[in-house]
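Weekly sync notes, structure subgroup
Attendees: PM, AL, DS (notes)

Item 1: joint prediction request from the bench team. They want all two components modeled as one assembly rather than separately. Inputs as received:
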Amino acid sequence: MIPEAVPDGRPTDDALSRVHREEHSRLLATLVRRFGDLDLAEDAAQEAMESALRTWPAQGVPRSPLAWLTTVATRSALDRVRRDATSARRLAELRVREGVRAAVPADEAALSAGDLPDERLAMLMGCCHPAIAPADRIALMLRFVGSLNTEEVAQSLLLPVPTLQARITRVKKRITTHRISLTVPTDPVERARRLPLVLTSISLIFTEGYAATSGDTSIRRELTAEAIRLARLTHRLLPVPAEPQGLLALLLLTEARSPARDDAAGIPVPLEEQDRSRWDTELIAEGLALTQLAAARADAGRFTIQAAIAAVHAESSRFEDTDWAQIVALYDLLLARGDDPVVRMNRAIAVGRAQTPAEGLALLEQLGEEPRLRRHHPFHVALALFHEELGRMEEAVAAWHRALDLVGSTAERRFIERRLARHGE
Amino acid sequence: MKYVLLLMGNLADERCGETEEVPGPEEFIAFDAELQEAGVLAGGFALTDPEEGTSLSKASREAEPVITAGPYAESREFVGGTIVIEVDSLDDALAWAAKCPGAIGGRIEIRPLLEM
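Output from the run, pasted for the record:
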């Protein structure tokens, strides 16, 4: 897999961009592990990349680019620690003296990438430390474990670049002053508590991209690919627990529907009207296989259950064939793990399909006082759809109007306006 | 690294919390002993009730100090005491804070000591 040294230099650009995309986060994670300092790790990684750019064209791409970069970056970091006297660097020096240095092999360039431990689990868990605010966890994760550069991360989160940079700087400072450990918690209880935070952050990154309707949508959609990449990585690093596998399955099955979820004008197409022949069969096959494995595990949790719900949809070739009773049962399992008004809403919709629209509507109306749902436009869309099915057009129009007042994105606004137009509104 | 555990109480809780089971002084003494035993205790103090306090503030550098009895009227939270511990990382500080009786029904704020 790893290209042999090629002296003519032509594959260097390719090799470098490939290394940057695939290995940069690994390089960073290794450096953070060794020096415990994000700034130092970034500077040293940057210097190693520049050094590669200078030497690879002449000397050829090393057998293991990652091992080569790790050696060069580690040397550069050690030099910086010796030169620099700021407190953060002193901290790093302390760690170096504590014996990290002894653990650095003399010449990693002789090793292959397979010999280097993948330290990214520590970064994933460190970025999701509970002492870091949820929005900051996502920014850190994208910046340090993802493959997007700062400009891309900023664009995808709809933030100006300086705002994102200021946020990252503030979090890095917090990590240093509070000495937040960027490590896998050694306490198994703490480790078990941390994993859901990692998985939730990844799922939020996915949603951020999947729900992208404003800004440059093509860039924001990169977030779904990025979230899937992070979920794959988490599952690879933690193959035993069910939930990383369940999350990966959920994201794949959701992503599989993306070719059918918008019409030519970019207006969302509801599940019942989607052309299922456009769903990505490859993603579905992988998602279904993963769901099956995850669901068979004793520790299957909410991501696995959500994957199982997505799997029921993926398995029915027509909307009419959906096994709604199964979906209701899965929502009950989800509710047994913790009450959530949005889950209760989705369960009510499924009951409306499994039994009658009147039963679904009755359940939805019972939820009408939930503050979170009153502000949630899909709740009013669901009410409108059931009212329509039951021929209660006046109520349907009122619900569509409430949904219209709450909706944020232009595309969804147009979807609601189109539905209202059917009522002559 | 030194962290201060600020043991925060709430005025509202204190008034209506009489019937609830709150940790007694002996639990705090036992926790202190545990910190001592582990070699992480680096200081701290307990405080009298917030009503016993006196506040002083100056609107600007030159302004006359304004002195009022009791805590700042609008703040409901008060510091009941502090414990200073010396540990390696925030995770260790959090682990100790989780064992502190002051967390029960209250709040512990963990703040790194500013190194001058």
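Discussion: Chain B has a mean pLDDT of 86.
Action: AL to compare against the crosslinking data before next sync.
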